[in-house]
From TrEMBL:
This is Sulfur relay protein DsrC. It comes from Maritimibacter fusiformis.
Amino acid sequence: MTNVAKLSDLIIGHPEVTKFAELEKLVAHAGESGIMHLEFDLKPDFRDTPRKWEWLLEAAFTRGLKYD
């Protein structure tokens, strides 16, 4: 298992994710699955992506599924 994930790979690998809240859950799951670092290589292109999207995804990744 790799210890680094790119945000673009998570988004491309999960086309069913269409909202930012769903992406947060996906990122939280990645954080619990043993991935040590999440690389923000692109801005999520969802209609509801907030301005502070990096901070929110970092928090979800760090807290894992307890973020819900």
